[in-house]
Amino acid sequence: MTFQQLSVDDLKVLMATDTPLTVFDTRDPAAYAAGHIAQAQALNNNTLQELLAATPTSNTVVVCCYHGISSRAVAGWLAEQGYEHVYSLIGGYSAWSGNS
Question: Does the reported pTM lie above 0.90?
């Protein structure tokens, strides 16, 4: 399994559909608290097991970080865990917040 990259515009389109979608935000808690994508869940060492247990592997999963770099590693790891449709958000939250 591998992951793909997704643009901010493509994520907005995806969010407007009925596709089962999970958005994970891997930034630090202070950055997440200061602002995040509306339905994003903070994914960190404290929330990892609970969030993965609650997220079906058939869901479309989008990983968001600061600038779209570290989210690639997380997206790759999620694909290795059996998630079928995994994306890394191109440009991360900085692209999202500058585009929304």
Answer: yes
